[in-house]
Automatic annotation (TrEMBL):
The lineage of its organism: Bacteria, Bacillati, Actinomycetota, Actinomycetes, Kitasatosporales. Residues 19-252 form the ABC transporter domain. This is ABC transporter ATP-binding protein. The keyword Membrane does not apply. It comes from Streptomyces subrutilus. Keywords: ATP-binding, Nucleotide-binding, Transport. GO terms for cellular component: membrane protein complex; plasma membrane. One of its GO terms (molecular function) is transmembrane transporter activity. Pfam families: ABC_tran. InterPro entries: AAA+_ATPase (IPR003593), ABC_transporter-like_ATP-bd (IPR003439), ABC_transporter-like_CS (IPR017871), ABC_transpr_LolD-like (IPR015854), MacB-like_ATP-bd (IPR017911), P-loop_NTPase (IPR027417).
Length: 254
């Protein structure tokens, strides 16, 4: 399959993949009762790309994101992030990877209710022991990036759902990660707010030079993504199978 992307040559350097997923399997349980959530998933994401991961509920999207993010280990196969094989890291190494190189955005926002927007953005930097003044400056810069300069001192309960998700995006960028992983980031938002969040993610990938892997049912993100990968029953769907069956493409690389 010929693959082209909208990522530019100068952003992707020598076009080396930033993320490699190789024949990843993940099973839960054993024997006849085993559940095979992932069945030999393979794909690559180049630096500076936004990749949308689509599929029905139960197709393996969240399991795959957990494996890519170092929150879970594959039963077989390998995940490489910018040349680092996650299977070679111990728990301390995985913790450092998640803290320093990966930013997470969750469907439920995941903000700490008693902290202000700026303080929530600053949490990942606290874990890295970034000095207070530097942390505060970075938090305000990121809130400006996501259009929330005037809401830095408000707590999550004082913000709309879309504003809370913008704070979550800013928090994901706090430690200048290589990769942003987002699991259904518009799942609790109305369609217009969801479009705004998707456009924000697209803009952030461009402006900050990060790579993003986003699980979504939202067709808006698929329109904005550089690459769309579909999972079906724990496998990457093959467009050739769809073409033979006379249906739409199942996995698209644009």
């Amino acid at each position: 399959m010929t693959q082209t992307t909208r990522a530019t040559q100068d952003r992707t350097g020598a076009q080396e993949p930033m993320l490699r997923v190789r024949e990843v399997h993940r099973s839960f349980g054993s024997g006849a009762q085993a559940v095979h959530a992932l069945r030999g998933v393979s794909f690559e994401v180049r630096r500076g790309e936004l990749t949308a991961l689509k599929g029905r509920s139960g197709s393996g999207k969240t399991t795959l994101l957990n494996v890519v993010g170092g929150l879970d280990a594959p039963s077989r196969g390998a995940v490489e992030l910018d040349g680092t094989d996650l299977s070679g890291l111990d728990e301390a190494g995985l913790l450092e990877l998640r803290r320093d190189r990966i930013g997470f955005v969750f469907q439920s926002f995941g903000l700490i209710p008693v902290l202000t927007a700026a303080e929530n953005v600053g949490v990942p930097m606290r874990l890295r022991k970034v000095p207070a003044r530097q942390r505060e400056e970075r938090a305000r810069t990121l809130l400006a990036l996501v259009g929330l300069s005037d809401h830095a001192e408000q707590r999550p309960g004082e913000l709309s759902g879309g504003q809370q998700q913008r704070v979550a995006v800013a928090r994901a960028l706090a430690n200048e990660p290589d990769l942003i992983i987002a699991d259904e980031p518009t799942g609790q938002l109305d369609s217009e707010t969801g479009r705004q969040i998707m456009e924000l993610l697209r803009a952030v990938v461009r402006s900050e030079g990060v790579t993003a892997l986003v699980a979504t049912h939202d067709p808006t993100l698929m329109e904005l993504a550089d690459r769309v990968v579909e999972l079906r029953d724990g496998r990457v769907a093959d467009p050739a199978d769809d073409a033979a069956a006379g249906v739409g493409a199942g996995a698209v690389a644009r």
